[in-house]
Records
---
Amino acid sequence: MRVLLAEDDPVSRRALEAFLRRWDYDVIVAHNGLEAWNALQEESAPKLAILDWMMPGMDGVQVCREVRSRRPEPYIYILLLTAKDRKQDVVEGIEAGADDYLTKPFNSQELKARLRTGQRIIELQEELIRTREELRVRAARDALTGLWNHAAILDILRRELDRSRRERAPLGVIMADIDHFKRVNDTRGHMTGDQVLRQVAESLQATVRAYDSIGRYGGEEFLVVTPGSNAASTLQLAERLRAAVREATATTGGAAGPVTLSVGFTSTGELCESDWDVLLRAADGALYQAKRAGRDRVEMAVAPELLSRPQIAIL
């Protein structure tokens, strides 16, 4: 593990560095408090720090306060070295954000043991962060397909629309629905229906660009948010998505053959002043226009009447 050693006294610094290297730590040396603070601001900062209390520029307590106020994660375990042994001094150091302290002169084996304690705490903290991030990802993903879920993909749409306005760049929105999906469930069972949903999701995910976002909007309906896409490029992507699904499910689709998609799309080039919900309704209206026109096709939202869903759903 990398450890930051901040000590302005050259004799103490060399002795401490020798101990740390003997214990297989990768040592980053700072000669004063300001150097220590700069090192701890770096993206790859050590997660274990030994700070002398009394240093020029910034003392160890000041560095502790700055670290705790400006860098909550990843956690940095801080051990203060001090010649002060009054209880009020110790309390000041702990309240400033130090995790532990040693009073000079100290025993090297005690220092070694306290560093091991710090290392265990850091490892536990990292495990907790990993677990939290895994839970966060699960909460935003559809359990069946692994795509973004309904809430997550709508949040992405809102963020991308805000960014497109700031950057004055186009944004494409694609809504796709599996044709005759109820027939698949009715004739081949819901397990096959789930398999079809996963296959379609895999095909869509493999076809979009790395910076596009795709989510399961609901049931057998999918929403694609494609930054930087005007009407022409959104149309091209929509056609690629439709063709990819048909090809991938040619032999494993519904009872009547491959799975097909009806697709509707729009872009901010056509509805440049629209809010996210207007874009969504436009793409959804175009999708149902594709259903009415025979399915397995792509339609673009170009008319105001496409901004509302038909009263009778077409499955």
---
Amino acid sequence: MTMQSSVHFGTLSEGRAHLKSVIDAATDGRPASIQRDSSRSAVVDAERLRLLLTNFLPSGAELVPEAGGWTIVLPGQPFAADGSSVDKALDEMVTVLREYADDWSQRLRLAPNHAPNWALVQLIELSSDTQLREWLVGQ
């Protein structure tokens, strides 16, 4: 049996009929895509994409002691989090990131100043809370 180097289907019907091949290719790290009208969608392994985004988007998180607690900010982003300890501030930032991703998917993606955060939202959605904490502290 010969393994294809990539899997591309020109229509949604073809992609649906060969979905196992599309998923297998994505899992193997091979290019996989499905065309629908004038739009072409790539199918990728979620963990591979998450790792790529983690490396592509360092958080740049800044941890600042304030009034007996800690504040975390992500420079250039519209959110921050506070906590009485570093761990509590990190937990709060994970919550803030999850809420932002939800808001982005519902409406903010249409706003010109938030639309560029597509990659950040993908990273948030593909990561566990532990993985987000590691990303925030640069691990």
---
Amino acid sequence: MFVRAGYALGVIFLFLAAAVAKAQSKDLPAEGFLARSYHSSTGETMQYRLFVAPGYDAAKKYPVVLWLHDAGGRGSDNLQQISGSNFPGSHIWTTPENQAKYHAFVLAPQVDITKGWARPHANMPPVSIRLALEILDAVEKEYGIDPERVYVAGQSMGGEGVWAALSNSPGRFAAAIALCGYGDAWVTPRVAKVPVWIFQGQADPVVPVGKAREWVGSLKRTGGNPKYTEYTGIGHAVWDVAFSEPDLVPWVFAQRWKTN
């Protein structure tokens, strides 16, 4: 009887330990990110996370990266947009090494499960992008953000959002990163001149590589000079390799809006 009771208690202990470990793992992506909710003047609500540069000094100016998550980041938990597939793109800026060099803020709004960043394209500006830009406005008013070092990055659905953000807020972003997500041809003249690094998987079954090549060609024909990296044999999850590019972060923070 004692052995059975001891065994049962051991099982319970292991179960509880596993549950605690799982909870801690779930919370890890949120480390350093403030959980907030934005309420617009027209009645909409959007959840968002904000990473404030450690040692923030109101007398200084800081860069900020607006992170636009993929479809898997949608919801209302205010966590999915910085975890799972969105962990690399939202956290590359917050590593101790990169914070020591660049002291960047990261803003990560979250789209509701039924919505997207840039669709329908006929809605100008799309509601989700409008709200994200309004949140960015609020962050710039609350903190010392350098207007010459405002950046936007996104993947898949968020990649589409990058082009919508650039189109609907011309002259605002010093540079952009777009992974496997593209815009409509008519916005090309509005976005072509922004320094942008585009990433695409050659074997992407969701966004065909031909679309990426066509989009890059369109930007170049319109006077742009985008950086384009295509990974042979890589599918849609191009973020698994793109955010390991050693030149990516230095390239982004080398861009200044005034020099564009």
